[in-house]
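Quick start: what a row looks like.
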Amino acid sequence: MKICVLGAGGMGSLYGGKLSAVPTNEVWLVDVYKDHVKKINEDGLCIQCDGKDTYYKNAKAVEDSSVIGPCDLVIIFVKGTATRAAIEANKGLFGPDTMALTVQNGLGNAEVIGEIIGYDNVACGTTEQGARMLAPGKILDMNKGVGKTVIGDIHGQVTPRIEAVGAVLREAGFETHVSESVNGLIWDKLIVNVGINGCAAAMNLTNDELWSIPEANVIHVAAVKEAIAVARALGVKLSYEDPLAHVKEVCGFTVGNQCSMLLDVLNERPTEIDLINGAVVREGKKLGVPTPVNEIIVDLVKVKQRKYGKR
C-alpha cells in the first residue's frame, strides 16, 4: 500500500516508521522540520523503545509532497489547528480513491478533511499510542508499543475500505479495531484531554498534580464534569460508566508527565485549546449546557499564547 504520513512529529514518525517495515508498503513522511527530514533520509528513522534504538530505513521523508503523487492512504498527524491548511497545501496526495485517516486530538478534524476531499474518503478514530521527538530523526515510543488504535467510518459504518486500513495497521504491529461507535470513542478521548491537556496547560502542572493539589483538583474535576454533561446532552454513547474515574486513572499512570499542550505552552508553540476545551464550550452553547470552567481554561491558555515572545 502507498502510504503518506502528513505531519511526521513523534506520533507521525511512530506510525510511519512501523508501517515502513512492512515490505509491501511504500511509506512517505511529510514534515516541515528540515533537520528531521534530512536526518531520516541520511540515517533512517530511529525509534527508541524501552532503551533500545531501532532504525527504519525504508521510509522516505520530504518537505514538499509534490514529488509523491496520489496515495492509497494518508494519515494526518499535524496539529488540529493546521489541519485545513495541511490538506489544502497537499491536495496532490489525494486521488479519488485515497483514504484519509485522522486520529488527531480534539473535535472537528474529520469534518474539515471531509469538506475538502469528500466525506466518503475519511476514516477517524483514537489511539492510545504515545510518542515524542527526542532529536531530529529520533523519537521515543512512550508506550513501548502498547496501546489500542480504534478507527471507523465518519458515517458510523464498517466498510471494506475501513477494514483495509485496519488490516494494514495491524500488519505493522498496531493493535487496531474497527468500530461503528467511533464518535463515542472520540468523545472518550476528548474528555481525557479536556481534563488533562487544557487544565495542565492553564495551570502549569504535571498530570498527577491535577489530582494531588486540592485547588487544581477542584478546577480539573469541574472541567471534566462539564465535558461529560455536554457529551450526554448530545446523546453520545461513552465507553466508561464513570468517565471522571477514567480520567483519574489516566492521570495516575502518567505520574510526572508533562502533557503535550503544557509542552506547547512552555515551548511557545500554538496549542489545540480551541479543538479540545474550546470544542466543549462551543457544543455547550449550542445545547444550552453551561461550561464556565472550560471557558476560563480556554481564556487562560490564550492569555499565555499572547505572551509568547514577550518574556
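That is the whole record. The two ends are 48 Å apart (CA to CA). The domain at 2-180 is CATH 3.40.50.720 (Rossmann fold).
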